[in-house]
């Protein structure tokens, strides 16, 4: 249980860190990419603006008396097309362009569009008017594409390294966070176990004495009989509570270190459920309830037979206790795919509220409608079932509605060798 809490803390923290990190890298990349686009645009505008030098300066950051925002330092090729003669004059003193690429640019610029790209050659072009006609400026995007790719690659590598280092740190931090919880849990479990053991002896003595008194009721005044019987009844209830606390303490210990408490063996889950159902069919019949069973055969799991049997019996016992008279209890056991055994117990009764469903596995929790003291329980059965299933690498859930009734669902991994 605490290991799951540690992994959940790890997952939440790392998800948040990854979101912040990749969000920051995305914003940085977007800003850098926008700057590259503005740089290319400025270089093209430098050539198209006839009031500025067509070639970039070397040795200075900006050209004299020129607005820095429109002065780009990229090498640009341009062609001038005479409006009267249609003559094309190529200026490739700043860079060189191949004839096929140039031809595609001229063809693309012959229409109404004033700018565009030639994807095959990685060229961005833009045209504008000049006194003699129009000018088409061209710049290569290969370098900017490489810069973008390198930035993405570098950012990804850095992000992975940072997340790897953060994962180690967060794992150590999670151990520090969970460690006090572990100690508190262990102390509580140890106290519950020790107190329950200490209570068993005096309770046994009390019950033994009351039974002796019950054997000699004829020698005791009739008015005093009820006190003896009441004492024995309450001592029996107390003994049940002590046994439940011991089981809960064992389940808590197993949730922390299941291998040391529960002995897992490969067992036939189908046979275990079938045997439990046979016993509870009689109990259900006595309480005017019926059983409807749909049990898939040969579902094998690796689990502790005693612990799993107790959980199954807790669910069946609750179903019989709280089902409406004359109703049918539906028991289902089947496989979900080839990995999971699915065991469900459904009964018809007054539906649980959402608050009841949310707290149904809490210790000593009892709803007013369906978990009253009249049933004789203490609100520990489902808590024991939940903690036990966590220790057995399984899970148990509850759903309740007026239409479907109340259903408790138990899931457990199937044994791979028997698939």
CATH topology of the largest domain: Heat Shock Protein 90
Distance between the termini: 27 Å
Helix and strand pattern: HEEHEEEHHHEHEEHEEHHEE
Mean pLDDT: 83
Structural class: alpha+beta
Number of helices: 9
Strand content: 15-25%
| Strand adjacency order, main sheet | 2-1-5-4-3
Report the sheet with the most strands, covering strand number, pairing sense and barrel closure.
5 strands, antiparallel
The strand count comes to 12
Helix content: 40-55%
CATH uppermost class of the largest domain: Alpha Beta
What integer value in Å does the Rg equal? 40 Å
CATH superfamily of the largest domain: Histidine kinase-like ATPase, C-terminal domain
What does this protein look like?
The chain has 419 residues and is an alpha+beta fold. The protein folds into three domains: 75-140, no CATH class; 178-258, Signal transduction histidine kinase, dimerisation/phosphotransfer (DHp) domain (Helix Hairpins, Orthogonal Bundle); 262-418, Histidine kinase-like ATPase, C-terminal domain (Heat Shock Protein 90), CATH 3.30.565.10. 53% of the residues lie in helices and 18% in strands. It has nine helices and twelve strands. The strands form three sheets. Strands 2-1-5-4-3 form a five-stranded antiparallel sheet, with helices on both faces. The chain has a five-stranded mixed sheet with strand order 7-9-10-12-11, covered by helices on one side. A two-stranded antiparallel ribbon has the order 6-8. A hairpin with a 3-residue loop joins β9 and β10 (340-347). α7 runs antiparallel to α9. The longest helix is centred in the middle third of the chain and has 74 residues, at 142-215. The protein starts with a helix and ends in a 6-residue tail after the last strand.
């Amino acid at each position: 249980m605490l290991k799951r809490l540690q992994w959940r803390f790890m997952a939440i923290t790392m998800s948040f860190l990854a979101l912040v990190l990749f969000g920051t890298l995305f914003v940085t990349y977007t800003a850098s990419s926008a700057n590259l686009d503005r740089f290319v645009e400025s270089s093209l505008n430098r050539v198209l603006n006839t009031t500025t030098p067509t070639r970039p300066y070397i040795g200075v950051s900006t050209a004299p008396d020129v607005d820095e925002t429109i002065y780009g330092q990229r090498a640009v090729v341009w062609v001038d097309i005479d409006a009267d003669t249609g003559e094309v004059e190529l200026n490739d003193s700043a860079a060189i362009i191949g004839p096929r690429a140039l031809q595609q640019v001229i063809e693309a610029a012959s229409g109404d569009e004033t700018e565009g790209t030639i994807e095959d050659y990685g060229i961005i072009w833009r045209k504008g008017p000049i006194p003699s006609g129009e000018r088409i400026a061209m710049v290569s995007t290969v370098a900017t594409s490489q810069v973008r790719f390198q930035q993405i690659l570098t950012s990804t590598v850095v992000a992975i390294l940072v997340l790897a280092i953060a994962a180690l740190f967060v794992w150590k931090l999670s151990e520090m966070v969970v460690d006090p919880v572990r100690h508190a849990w262990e102390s509580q479990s140890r106290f519950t176990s020790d107190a329950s053991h200490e209570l068993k002896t005096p309770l046994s003595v009390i019950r033994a004495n009351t039974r002796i008194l019950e054997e000699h009721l004829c020698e005791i005044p009739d008015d005093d009989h009820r006190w003896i019987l009441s004492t024995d009844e309450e001592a029996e209830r107390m003994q049940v509570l002590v046994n439940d606390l011991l089981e809960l303490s064992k389940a808590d210990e197993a949730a922390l270190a299941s291998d040391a408490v529960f002995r897992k063996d490969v067992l036939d889950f189908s046979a275990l459920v079938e045997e439990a159902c046979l016993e509870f069919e009689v109990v259900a019949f006595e309480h005017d309830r019926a059983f409807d069973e749909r049990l898939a055969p040969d579902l094998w799991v690796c689990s502790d037979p005693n612990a799993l049997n107790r959980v199954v019996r807790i669910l069946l016992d609750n179903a019989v206790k709280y089902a409406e008279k004359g109703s049918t209890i539906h028991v289902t056991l089947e496989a979900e795919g080839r990995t999971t055994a699915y065991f469900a117990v459904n009964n018809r009764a007054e539906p649980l509220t959402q608050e009841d469903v949310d707290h149904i596995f809490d210790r000593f929790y009892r709803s007013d409608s369906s978990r009253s003291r009249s049933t004789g329980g203490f609100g520990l059965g489902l808590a024991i079932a939940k903690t036990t299933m966590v220790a057995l690498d399984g899970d148990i859930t509850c759903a309740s509605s007026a239409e479907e009734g109340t259903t408790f669902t138990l899931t457990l991994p199937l044994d791979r060798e028997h698939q």
